[in-house]
Amino acid sequence: MNYRHAFHAGNHCDVLKHAALSIALARLKAKDKPFAVLDTHAGRGSYDLSGEEARRSGEHHGGVLRIYNESDAPRALQPYLLAVGACNPFGGALRWYPGSPLIIQSALRADDSAKFCELHPDERRRLQDAIGRDGRIKIFERDGYEAVRAFLPPKERRGLVLIDPPFEKPGEYERLAQALTDGMKRWASGAFMIWGPIKDDAGFGAFAQAAATIGRRHMLEAELSIGPRAAGELSGSRLVVINPPFGLAAGLAECLPYLSRKLAAARGGGWRVRETENGACAIDEGAAG
């Protein structure tokens, strides 16, 4: 448990993950029926971009800072930008960046609910401080993969599971595949969103193949790269979504060309959205413009 997301908050990987999460939540809210969210690796919830960790890495300068308060952002990106803005209500420079728990909290209605899992004691304490007293939310000191088995299905019967581990340990993709198998057995109609870095093609390829078998009716894959691959550098990230909410693929196809252009660090980056449903496959992709 050495990973601290504070060094990476608001970088290009967060932008992809949180933009997709915000679109998915907006689509879930389009129906009157309540929904539930399980965040398996929650983190601290809120990140100070003026803090020591963020200043040392500076990664947010190549991420959220390039699109915050930009007037040309596409409509599909607005739920994400509104969630970031809600953490900075007094205007001026962007200081606070919301992790997935605060983005989820901002989307919940009175009858919706969320569960957040975080093993690191300091991160969990900060998460509780960030969330405050909110009866719709419960925070657990629990392994996120075990939580998939323990907490599904939710009483609301519709909603989303977000799985975005730090990828510190060997065998992470195997654990992801097993968690997805367990989750789909318990909650076949739930949406499962899995984030991963673009660095281990063999591991990800095996996971994607397993995910395609598990979610054989409907699966979405999305990628965003800010430049060509280089040893020791994280140039991009990707998402796999089983049972994606209606409209998520279209929203990402609207956002990603813009993000690819705004966040590009060098030539060679690009974006891709691939949706497979009932055997049919549609692909949108492009290079950084």
Based on the model shown, name its key terms.
nine-stranded mixed sheet; Rossmann fold; 11 strands; alpha/beta; 21% strand; 289 residues; globular
What do these coordinates show?
The chain is α/β, with parallel strands linked by helices and 289 residues long. The chain has one domain: 3-Layer(aba) Sandwich (Rossmann fold). 36% of the residues lie in helices and 21% in strands. It is built from nine helices and eleven strands. It has a nine-stranded mixed β-sheet, sandwiched between helices. Strand 4, helix 5 and strand 5 form a beta-alpha-beta unit. The termini are far apart.
Write the layout of secondary structure elements.
Blueprint: H1 12-28, E1 36-39, E2 46-48, H2 52-57, H3 78-86, E3 96-98, H4 100-107, E4 113-117, H5 121-131, E5 137-140, H6 144-151, E6 159-163, H7 172-186, E7 191-197, H8 201-214, E8 218-225, E9 236-242, H9 248-263, E10 270-277, E11 280-287
Parallel strand pairs: 1-4, 1-6, 4-5, 6-7
Antiparallel strand pairs: 2-3, 7-9, 8-9, 8-10, 10-11
Helix pairs in contact: 1-3, 1-4, 1-9, 6-7, 7-8
